[in-house]
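Researcher: Before we compare anything, I want clean individual predictions. No alignment, no superposition, just each chain on its own. First chain goes here; please echo the sequence and then give the structure tokens.
Model: Echoing the first chain and its structure:
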Amino acid sequence: MHALIMSFGTRGDIQPYAAFAGALARAGHNVTLAIPEGFADLLPTNGPGTVTHWPAGSTMLRLLQDVLPQLSGPRDALRTLGVMTSAMRELNAECWSAAQATRPDVVVYHPKRLAGPHIAEALGVPGVFSLPLPLYTPTRAYPVPFFGGASFGAWGNRASYAFRRVAGTMYGGMISDFRREVGLGHLSRLADPLKNPDGSPVHILYPYSRHVVPVPGDYPPSAHVTGYWFLDHDAGWEPPSRLVDFLAAGDPPVYIGFGSMGFGKGADQRREAVLAALRVHGLRGIVATGWGGIAPGEAEADDVLVLEGVPHEWLFPRVAAVVHHGGAGSTAAGIRAGRPTLIVPFLGDQPFWGARAHRLGVGPAPLPARQLGTGLAERLGNLVHTGSYASRAQEVGAAVRTEDGLGTGVRVLEQITGVGTRG
């Protein structure tokens, strides 16, 4: 089997798909991973199969990193819109080039890859949707995760999944243009992204744990909750000596980091709030500045180490607790490590993961980012001084570690394609 896997976003959006590519290669399959150039270092190299990098989305990623943080008003936003649209069209073209060059047996695509289902249709191969969040399959159990931990009753919860047609509505013109370019006919802007043109269901891979979000009883057979897809750090990776020395110098610290949240805006204030909260409780801390989440610079305190970032899968088992923005990847890493978790959500699905962590009993209620300055000290004390959070985190972490999310994902994809391990 030759799989074309397409994802886009920050490092956390790419890592699960790089891990899945490696698992497919270890099972003897060949994979083309269409991701931005800056993430080529994530490509796995082991396995009888191969994983090849196809650069796609590099211009779009540079815009997100360099242009969006500088926007200062509506006029800037309007000027950027044209550039962003051009970059999205370029991204679609790059994905189509990858498909034409590799002729895959199956296309696995994150919803940020708008061209994904249309490429699969044009090639006449299965298209498989995938994202580490229960965002698209309607259920009575809970609404679209963008509502956090809310519930609107069985009917209201299921109705909220009309959201899944938003991309077709917003980008209908771009999608129609792309379909014409690849020889496909018109598609309604309101078309269901989980229905193939012949009416059959689109299979969807959900790489998260059923121990974190239970599988609803009304999920169809086409919705596959596999377990997490973890990309473990390179065995040759060595932590910086100052990190090793810091960890050895005292009690396990608390990790605090917000990734790319805020695009750098408010990073100084977040830094001050974090350092102040650690001081209040006399806690040792590792502060990860990330891509603009917290302002860089030495803490000028022996009990706090400031770093740009460290692989979560290496660091989290070595800390006492974790505080982060609630990205799907960060949440998964903290839970797998069995560490008490406080989520400070900024946007999107992060309130959902914050509510899930609290409902699981692995940490306190999420602290909205806008309340960071006034509420972090109190919530941090709750996190580290409530023994039940630590014991429950260990219990859930142990359950997650028993899952073989990658192996399950490989088996599901083999069943979908009917290709198995024949090559």
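Researcher: Okay. Second chain, same rules.
Model: Second chain and its structure:
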Amino acid sequence: MLTFVLNALRARNVPWTIVARESGVPYQTLKKIGAGVTENPGVMHVQALFDYFHTRGACSDSPASKEAA
């Protein structure tokens, strides 16, 4: 799940300010996760980001987008 979130963040398909606002994860926390500063982020933040990206198909590595291909 963390790998999926990191890939989605690094793809930068959606501005991080929007991701933070819509996922409920504070922007500063999101920046630390995306930059790798936080090596072991809390499960609640990772879950919120996973849900955000997974439901929006914002990452090309998502299982939904692979099924559609």
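Researcher: What stands out in the second chain?
Model: The two ends are 21 Å apart (CA to CA). Additionally, Helices lie at 2-11, 16-23, 27-35, 43-56, 63-68.
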